[in-house]
Amino acid sequence: MRCMGRACFILLAGFAMAPGAAWGAGSLAMTLRHSGVSSVQARRLIREARADGVPASTVREWAQHFARLRSEKLPVSLAVEEVFEGLTKGVAAGRITTALGTFGAELLTARRELDRHATTASLLAHPRASRRALSDLVIAGRAGIHGQALDRLLGTGPLSVVRVATYTQVAADLRGWGVGRGRVVRLLGRARKAGVSDEKLFALDAKLGRQAAQGRGPQALGRDVSEGLGLRSSGGMGAGFGAGGMSGPAGAAMGAPGGSFGGPVGGGAGSGAPGGMGAGPMGSP
Predict the structure, then answer these.
(1) For residue 246, what are the CA distances in angstroms to 122, 167, 241, 251?
(2) Which structural domain, as residue segments, surrounds residue 46?
(3) Cβ atoms within 10 A of the Cβ of 85, count?
(4) Are residues 139 and 59 in the same domain?
(5) Model-level pTM?
(6) Angstrom distance (rounded) from CA 203 to CA 123
(7) What is the mean pLDDT of the chain?
(8) What pLDDT, on the 0 to 100 scale, is given for residue 24?
(9) How far apart are CA 114 and CA 137, in angstroms?
(10) Does residue 98 sit in the same domain as residue 58?
């Protein structure tokens, strides 16, 4: 093809701009923003999706899922983090789309559970803890702790949202390390009735995580829970797990059941067993 002067320049510039123009990054970013995605997450999502060859039409499907979550007043950022995890792990775009639908249903169930078990005042006062509790409830649900099992774990009286998040996270961690559901519910239910503090639970959770990483089996870990929380005797709460223990979500780094593609829900640090590929909504057959 021969061309001259300004006409040639315009023609070549049109070819160079065509891919970006066809993708419509600007309008797509606006669509994501209107669906509840932050500007930072929207830019990253477009960048990573384009790099992985995801069609713009698929990203718009994801935006529809995000918009539904926003309309239900659910944290869109948790779903966006699920997409990032899938993209990072090379999951097919269609499977990510399917996972978003499942994850949305899980979040709705988790919100109903949270509304039943947490006080309204704590939900309003601690939005970040509420978001974490939703994530933890999704993970616990994937580990089989939902419905009546969750009622036995948390009791029938309302708790603070921080308390709900603590107990569901530790329960999910124990399930991730292979401790049976019945034993987890029974032990942590007793701990709740005994008034075991969040700090004590997190300290024990961190210690058990290190032991699990070193190969300690589920039966031994179950015994460690009983002994660490002082549930086998009437005296004391067990040595080494006093109020000076860890005060953060230590178990998240130790292998809790996780997100749709093997990582933790919401982009935390967990390793994702057993709730990852094969157990989450996008698990392989």
Answers:
(1) 22, 15, 9, 10
(2) 25-117
(3) 26
(4) no
(5) 0.73
(6) 25
(7) 79
(8) 61
(9) 8
(10) yes
